Amino acid sequence: MDLKKQIINTLKAEVVPALGCTEPVAVALACAKAKALVHNSKVTNVNILVSPNIYKNGLCVGIPYTDEVGLQIAGALGIVGGNAEKDLQVLEGLREDQIQEAKIIVQKGLISLGIKETKEKVYVEVFVQAEGGSAKVILQEKHNRFIYLEQNGEILCNAVNLEQAQIADLSELYEKPIYEIITEIENIEYQELAFLLEGLEMNEEVAKVALEKKMGMGVGKGFLDNMEKGILSDDLMNYAMMLTAAGADARMSGAPIPVMSSNGSGNHGLTAILPIVAYRRKFDVSKEAYARALAISHIVTGYIKHYTGRLSALCGCGVAAASGAAVAIAWLMGADKERIDGTIKNMVANITGMVCDGAKVGCALKLATAAATAVQSALLAMRRVIVPSKNGIVGLTAEESIRNLGQLGIEGMTVTDDVILGIMQNMQ
């Protein structure tokens, strides 16, 4: 597959709307699919098994349409009113009576939740028993990728190995030099990238909601208040920080508003897009330039996630999505190859130590830091202020730096992930 097609196919697969945090949404999606397989008959028992990373990210995050957190209520909503045909917007349009019914299902103990012993980062397994039969559903690798469907003991789909060609295409894409990919994005016809502009509007609207009314911790609104008082300046860095934090305030508190996700995460989408929104509010640049900048941001985010893993002990918003936004901003400023590489090196040197301790309202602080660091890294690189190679894990090239980051996340922080999950469980 040629490079242009790889880029466009990847963007269309990885940049999609999502309603609610994607880990509980994946559980709701699997439950909704299982419910459909039993012909929507009355459910008597639901058993949910998830990977440790799904469990971690679903433990404390707000669930849309409720004032509750956790994977069990998400699964119950999927059972009662979820529509699997809506993909990551599976919970869109739930009625009040369905929400109350879901809460009753949880209270009655009809939904059990456990952690699956698996090396897969994204894994959701749901077994449903109902008056109309039984069903088993497995999601793996991506939050919306069904790899196994079973109905009344009959296997309808067992696609564990059917995606290898697509995986190979991604590997080929993410083994290419980043600047080569960016050069190709510069040459893609604008109309083929214009669909990405929807994410600018969608994610800015989410942020505006939390700036008008305090949501979650109110981090974004807190920054806005300080900017209006003159304590903080209304510059690009602070504006990006404010918008991105506000988006997380809304999403992590469970606001039933869709966001444009990136590489399987709504928070990644907020971080990859909202600093570019901030740039748009400060500088006059064409829609075509923004479409290309968004493509660069999402592709660089995916590039880094390819090496760090879909979910990990590292905060993907900080190390991946913010790096994507940083490169996009540097590109908008006219960065050449040296400055693009330098932007990535600055990000790797600066924010690598940010860990992921699950999705929650406190993520707004991390997204604020990530967005500010993205702008900072780009601005410094444009002045050729770049962390030297062989400084810590910073490699000779941007690509080597990213591979080093991936090695740290996968080989060096497995125990960290286990410890984080243990601490979180002990506090419940």
Q: What's the total helix number? A: 17
Count of distinct strands? 8
Determine the fraction of residues in helical runs and give it as a percent range.
55-70%
Counted up, domains total 2
Largest sheet: 6 strands, mixed
How does the helix and strand content classify structurally?
alpha+beta
The order of strands across the largest sheet is 3-2-4-5-6-7
Gist of the model:
The chain has 17 helices and eight strands.
What does this structure look like?
Helices cover 56% and strands 10% of the residues. It has 428 residues and is α+β, with helices and mostly antiparallel strands. The protein has helices at 3-14, 22-37, 52-58, 71-81, 96-107, 164-173, 178-187, 197-212, 219-228, 236-252, 266-282, 287-308, 316-332, 337-351, 363-382, 398-412, 414-426, and strands at 17-18, 43-50, 111-115, 123-130, 133-140, 146-151, 154-158, 259-260. It has two domains: 17-158, 60s Ribosomal Protein L30, Chain: A (2-Layer Sandwich), CATH 3.30.1330; 166-426, 2-methylcitrate dehydratase PrpD. The strands form two sheets. It has a six-stranded mixed β-sheet. The protein has a two-stranded antiparallel sheet with strand order 1-8. Strand 6 (146-151) and strand 7 form a beta hairpin.
